Amino acid sequence: MKLVIIGNGIAGVSLARMVADAAPETDIALYSSEPYAYYPRPKLISLLAGTVPADKMPAFAPDWYAKRGIVNHLGQHVAEIRPSDHEIVLDDGGKVSYDSLVLATGAHAWVPPTPGVDLAHVYTLRTLADALALRDKASEGGDAVALGGGLLGLDSCAALLTTGIAITIVEMMPHLLPRQLDAEGAAVLQSLLEQRGLAFITGDVAAAIEGDGQVERVRLKGGPVLDADLVLISAGVRANIALAQQAGLTCDRGIVVNERLLTSAEDVYAIGDCAEFAGRVWGIIPAATAQARIAAAQITGDTDAIYTDIVPSTTLKVSGIDLSSSGDVNPEDPEAQQLRLADADAGTYKKLVLRDGKLVGAIVLGERQDVRTLDQLMARGIDLSAHVDRLLDPEFDLASLLA
Ligand SMILES: Cc1cc2nc3c(=O)[nH]c(=O)nc-3n(C[C@H](O)[C@H](O)[C@H](O)COP(=O)(O)OP(=O)(O)OC[C@H]3O[C@@H](n4cnc5c(N)ncnc54)[C@H](O)[C@@H]3O)c2cc1C
After folding, report:
1. Any idea which architecture 322-402 has in CATH?
2. DSSP letter string, 286-311
3. Which residue's alpha carbon is nearest to atom 53 within ligand 1?
4. How far is ligand 1, taken at its centre, from the CA of residue 128, in Å?
5. Whole-number Å distance between alpha carbons of 367 and 379
6. Please, which pLDDT band fits residue 319 given cuts at 50, 70 and 90?
7. Where does 234-350 have alpha helices with state H?
8. Cα(252)–Cα(325) distance, rounded to whole angstroms?
């Protein structure tokens, strides 16, 4: 059986490893536009912070692929897929046939159509090359303007502070991390980040990035003009669906897959940041590895393996600040019960969301204790109705509810 994988991110390498383990006789070829052996993208934050050098980025020893019989073609961009002929076409025109094809093409940073985004020293962060260029420029000092106060924007900016550059983060929404936090929790987080040296403007967006060939300033819609030697755009990601789209596969925001991770084309699977299941593209590692597991099982003959969606869970890596956000943290239905405990002086905030007595969402900011317990209470759907009054009591032993 010949398996071709396009993509060398966590989805592609996880699937390659699982297939190699379960069916060592499989002929596995993996193609990747990026020239590097697999590195975890979260580690790019450590590279920005200067705590991990570029040569320590790869996750595996150089012989990792060969040891598993995986033939990797790093730096080889796939130009086209031809599902009706069961083959792919490389940039140089070479054709490669397959029995099963897995699209693990990931995502790219989305750049809003703001005037000036093509000036020199406007960056996004997705790849090792992006991170190296960004850290180099930030190390020259001056002022940076970061557009986007989401998870990636905050993590990147907190890391870049180590270069000494002054950073202002501009967030369009009225508060930071609108998907993971509510207004009260976001205020606690913003104050913690301000103490570290970041500056914020919320509820505003860039109208234009200006300069003579290179960035000099950012003009905001609300009026302020900010000096800038570099601009970092963290405005979200978009799935890489071009290959699939050109081949006529069903795509929406991602490449549409069923519970077997099969696309609309025979023997073609999609997993990770490029895949859309039940109307959702997650863009996070737990979804990519869970999908890789099911696709690998399908490819190696376990056709009963079925993908069910995950509960999203997020942690922030801003050094010294623990933030965990899981499930539905901003419910809109009045039936949802919301419990909150805030201590701005201590920099802590906790919020639990219950529906029918069961935990469906949790924010824990400023501490790590109870995070795993809360995730398990949520995953196991344990009825907490009898304990609602005590769930936020620091003296209460939440873990006892798992027994
Ligand atoms: C800085 C940063 C920090 C992050 N932190 C977290 C975190 O803490 N937790 C979390 O869950 N997620 C995090 N993420 C998101 C996470 O990295 C992604 O969910 C994950 O990388 C998705 O893996 P993937 O394999 O689907 O795609 P990708 O990692 O994007 O890999 C896609 C691969 O496909 C290749 N490719 C694409 N098109 C082609 C083509 N035509 N031909 C050949 N090769 C092609 C690319 O070169 C690449 O190798 C972070 C992302 C970034 C950028």
Report:
1. 2-Layer Sandwich (3.30)
2. HHHHHHHHHHHHHHTT-TT----PPP
3. 126
4. 11
5. 21
6. low
7. 242-246, 285-299
8. 27
Q: What is the pLDDT of residues 182-221, one digit of tens each?
A: 999 999 999 999 999 999 999 999 999 999 999 999 999 9
* Mean pLDDT within 33-49: 96
Fold matches, 122-233 and 322-402: no
The whole model's pTM is what? 0.91
**CATH architecture of the domain covering 2-108+237-299:** 3-Layer(bba) Sandwich (3.50)
CATH of domain 122-233: 3.50.50.60
d(CA 365, CA 315): 10
265 token code pair:
């084309």
Ligand 1 centroid – CA 344 distance (Å): 35
What span, in angstroms and rounded, lies between the C-alpha atoms of 399 and 385? 15
Cα 218 → chain centroid: 26
Q: Whose CA is nearest to atom 5 of ligand 1?
A: 42
Pocket test for ligand 1, best of 14, 78, 285, 321 (most atoms within 8 A of CB): 285
pLDDT in tens, 110-157: 999 999 999 999 999 999 999 999 999 999 999 999 999 988 999 999
Across 2-9, average pLDDT: 98
Which segments within 54-165 are labelled E, that is strand?
A: 70-74, 78-82, 87-90, 95-97, 100-103, 107-109, 122-123, 143-147
| 309 Cα–ligand 1 center, Å | 19
Domain residue spans of the chain = 2-108+237-299, 122-233, 322-402
- Ligand 1 centroid to residue 11 C-alpha, Å: 8
Which residue of 41, 76, 128 sits with most ligand 1 atoms within 8 Å of its CB, as the best mutation to test the pocket? 41
